[in-house]
Specification:
The structure is a single chain. With 465 residues, the chain is of the alpha/beta class. The protein has a 6-stranded mixed β-sheet with strand order 1-2-6-3-7-18. A 4-stranded antiparallel β-sheet has the order 12-14-10-15, covered by helices on one side. It has 2 domains: 3-202 and 373-463, Aminopeptidase, CATH 3.40.630; 204-258 and 304-371, Alpha-Beta Plaits. It has 12 helices and 20 strands. The structure holds ligand BES and manganese (II) ion (2 copies). Residues 127-128, 160-161, 163, 187-189, 205, 369, 371, 403, 405-408, 433 line the site of ligand BES. The site of one manganese (II) ion has 5 residues, from loops.
Amino acid sequence: MEKSIITAYIEQNKARLLSELFELLRIPSVSADSTKSADVIKTAEAVKQRLIDAGADKVELCETKGFPVVYGEKIIDPKKPTVVVYGHYDVQPAEPLELWDSPPYEPIIKKTEVHPEGAIFARGACDDKGQMYMHVKAFELMMKTNTLPCNVKFMIEGEEEVGSPSLGPWIIANKERLKGDVILISDTSIIANDTPSIDTGLRGLAYMEVEVVGPNRDLHSGVYGGAVANPINILCKMIASCHDENNHITIPDFYADVMELSIEERAEMAKAPFDLNEFKKDLNVDDVLGEKGYSTIERTGIRPTLDVNGIWGGYIGEGAKTVLPSKAFAKISMRLVPNQNSEKISAIFQKYFESIAPKSVTVNVKPHHGGEPYYLSSENTGYKAASMAMQETYGKKPVPTRGGGSIPIVALFRKELGLDSVLLGFGLDSDALHSPNEHYGLFNYYKGIETIPLFYKYYTELSSK
Ligand code: BES
Ligand code: MN
Ligand code: MN
């Protein structure tokens, strides 16, 4: 497969490749919002049709307890390797809507400092409709130019942003159909458009909800205040006690299974280009904050964390109400690294949180979804093929990096299907994923479509050696 065939195809079809993505972005497929269920299904149907149009066989919407998985395949020769593509067609909620400069489901192109050639602004533009659709279009390209070098299977789900509750059972029930050699995913970031990189790791997740209950009803804060535990005060103290003055997590055994990197490995990681001033400027903060003894890249890549995602209770309406609330709540998540285990961490968190509560309150801890961390060596054949593909299209060898986010299903692919996942992402961390004004660079979209066919080529070549 010549790179010139690829670039010529992209050049000739440039406008259509973009307008088709725009159509997908116009459907608000928010998996977390039950009022948008019909739109999530509409998006699945649209993806199904696009796979058919691109030339896939056996395309179907596979029913699950939740939203359907879109499946499709092209088997050109059973003796050739099979690449299994994973992506997700669901998106995060767009709220708060007032913080968007343009409506989240009306994609438009705007230029930005890091995307001088323009970026597509819409919810899901980067995470993950834009990145997922690059695979459909790269497949179309290989079909139309007669250059598909191996077999391909697509598995596009609609519940990634709510923890993939149905995909686990679905892959277990479809092991035969999902037989392949490697999983290919574009749902992560690169360092910068002139600095390609490939994530070799993802963090896991343990997500908890806690409730602190004090008196049996809200009380007059003058009549009772000072004599009865205030659950909000207590909860804040409990949360504060989870970190020490070095921002080290204090929960006993929390770090027990954390894989420590050697000095050499840390030195290797430190070679990845990273501009702390740019990082601070992008977030408009005067300084960063994190675990003592680790760099910013290490804090997001190889260290576990504990963060409050939301906290509520008491009076938050207009004006002042003097009340001593009966209850306080928080959602607390922990990002995990190899070889931590989400169930084990959930259990020790629960034990710790219950143990630090004073007798004057009761604490209820409920675990939400979790997921396991993931690591893939840069010696892996799939990684190498991805590296060669990027080297050819970016003119630079990509840097191995550790992603801070989570794609929990990836650990399950390895456990249940025995398949490694290659994280060939093309987004930027500054693309505002999950935030208002999410966007995806035009450069990144077309670069992805250009790079993916080369992954197939190099993977097929390396596998037959
Ligand atoms: N695509 C992201 C994960 C990601 C983003 C990984 C950037 C690496 C770099 C994914 O859609 C996501 O948001 N995952 C959730 C997981 C959760 C909903 C179970 C996350 O990381 O919070
Ligand atoms: Mn994603
Ligand atoms: Mn996401």
